[in-house]
């Protein structure tokens, strides 16, 4: 299980490093924007420069995962990004949800290995 977690952490880190840096530097060519609501969503994200903030969060999180320092913090930063990826695909492009589910499974595997860091979140206050 530990080897699987290491592989998942490295894959997660590499994927988010590449796509986070791409959000900042735009080195992977993109096709035309999708039509309908997904296209409107992306147009607003580009117009407001929101993608830059997401790119920074993804890049910083990926670096933390890859250097194996502050992994729980990196996972915490990636959590909202993954939720947004899943919700976007669930509500706007359900046919393309596969990669989002795969990345979420990787995240869960790494989070399970570091579950002690999150134990305090699940303790009820009396």
Question: What are the SSEs and their pairings?
Answer:
Blueprint: H1 2-25, H2 36-47, H3 50-66, H4 71-91, H5 98-113
Explain how this protein is built.
This protein is mainly alpha-helical and 126 residues long. It has one domain. The protein contains 5 helices and no strands. It has helices spanning 2-25, 36-47, 50-66, 71-91, 98-113. Helix 1 runs antiparallel to helix 3 (50-66), helix 1 packs across helix 5 (98-113) and helix 3 packs across helix 4 (71-91). The longest helix has 24 residues, at 2-25.
Query: What's the average pLDDT?
Result: 94
Q: Find the structural class using helix and strand composition.
A: mainly alpha
- The number of E-state strands comes to 0
End-to-end gap: 35 Å
Main beta sheet: none
What is the string of helix and strand elements? HHHHH
Radius of gyration: 16 Å
How many helices? The count is 5
Structure described in brief:
With 126 residues, the chain is mainly α. 71% of the residues lie in helices and 0% in strands. It has one domain.
Features:
126 residues, mainly alpha, 71% helix, 0% strand, globular
